[in-house]
Design brief:
Elements (H helix, E strand, L loop, with lengths): L1 H13 L8 H5 L7 E2 L2 E2 L1 H25 L9 H8 L6 E5 H5 L3 E2 L10 E7 L8 E5 L10 E5 L4 E4 L4 E2 L3 E4 L6 H15 L12 H6 L1 E7 L2 E2 L1 H29 L4
Parallel strand pairs: 5-9
Antiparallel strand pairs: 1-2, 3-11, 4-10, 5-6, 7-8, 7-10, 11-12
């Protein structure tokens, strides 16, 4: 693993699309490795990778514990919600009628951004649309809201943030967290299917006109069921991660 990282470091620096890593080039490529008494120190590399892995596993395990993500046991209510998922009744709702008018972010050129701690959201999938961390005096949007970028891609935000003019904000912050996540998924399904692109951008006015399909109870959005379904799915997804961490802790003898 250490050697692979050393090779990768050289290749990324030395080669590109116009300067390919051919067989001949690679034969003459030099990598840097630790040595001891003029010999490659494989023992050091082994210890280094093990310690690095121990550190990362410890940090990840601590994160899971402090955030409560280690709880992956499905409750009876959650299992029932999953079993009944195919039988849910859905109805179309207008986004503005549910959450009020959406808000549009404001442009902030890269050259004008001051380094800081506030996540700044722009259009795109890289890093979930977080393009920078800024210290500018901008409008700060609440956590537990949904952003929709110029292409119609919706994402749930569990943190406060700023946004540029290619971002529409849907104010779902009064909903419980998991219910808001469900709504974000419903928004994405309606808005991100090819109708918006560079030629036709998605704006806040498009969010206000958007209809989304949600489970209903007594002809109203059933936010409780939405939250229970997402809670169950969340546990199913995190289960394999938690079990992997526990297995690695035993392998690495981490208490």
């Amino acid at each position: 693993m250490f050697i692979i990282a050393s090779i990768d470091k050289v290749i990324k620096r030395k080669y590109s699309y116009n300067n390919k890593a051919t067989k001949i080039e690679l034969k003459n490529t030099i990598i840097s490795l630790p040595v001891r008494n003029r010999d490659v120190d494989f023992d050091f590399m082994e210890r280094f990778i093990i310690e690095l892995e121990r550190e990362r596993i410890y940090v990840f395990d601590t994160f899971l514990s402090t955030t409560g993500l280690k709880d992956y046991e499905i409750t009876f209510k959650e299992q029932q919600a999953l079993d009944d998922l195919k039988n849910l009744k859905f109805k179309a709702f207008n986004l503005e009628n549910l959450f009020g008018k959406s808000t549009r972010g404001r442009r902030l050129k890269s050259a004008d951004r001051i380094s800081g701690t506030l996540p700044f959201i722009t259009a795109g999938e890289t890093d979930e649309g977080v393009s920078a961390f800024i210290g500018n005096n901008v409008t700060v949007f609440s956590a537990n809201t949904t952003t929709i970028d110029m292409f119609g891609s919706a994402k749930y935000r569990n943190f406060k943030y700023g946004g540029d003019d290619h971002i529409a904000i849907v104010h779902t912050d009064k909903l419980p967290r998991y219910s808001s996540v469900f709504v974000t998924s419903a928004i994405h399904k309606s808005s991100y299917n090819g109708q918006f692109n560079y030629g036709r951008n998605f704006y806040a006015k498009d969010a206000d006109a958007l209809d989304i399909s949600l489970p209903v109870k007594d002809n109203k959005p059933d936010y409780e069921t939405m939250g229970t379904v997402i809670s169950a799915i969340h546990k199913l997804v995190i289960k394999d991660v938690v079990l992997y961490i526990e297995r690695k802790k035993k392998e690495l003898n981490i208490i």
